[in-house]
Amino acid sequence: MVQNTSYQNCIEACQECAAECLSNVVSMLGKKSDNACPKCCLECAAICRLCVEMMAIDAKFASEACRLCVKVCEWCAEQCAAHDHDHCQQCAESCRRCVEACQSVAK
């Protein structure tokens, strides 16, 4: 496995983002949403978990997975930020941190 700070930071950000997104889905149960939240959270958690797995094995296409993760996390951050709920705002912030970390791997 490639041992570098970018990978480690991205793995940690993806793990945090996936957990935050799934927590947000639970918090949104029974609540109406006028946009793609919480669906975006499910998709975001899935791509974040995939990125972690790809980076953990130093996969050939890890950087491509991270590029897709950037797009999904940006979408999720936008959707969650549109809600006033604290849990949605926390999720949006976690997605933004993940975008920054994944961009360093997705070069």
UniProtKB/TrEMBL annotation:
One of the Pfam families matching this protein, by short name: Csp
PANTHER family linked to this entry: CYTOPLASMIC PROTEIN (PTHR37310:SF1), CYTOPLASMIC PROTEIN-RELATED (PTHR37310)
Protein name from the UniProt record: Four-helix bundle copper-binding protein
Organism of derivation: Adhaeretor mobilis
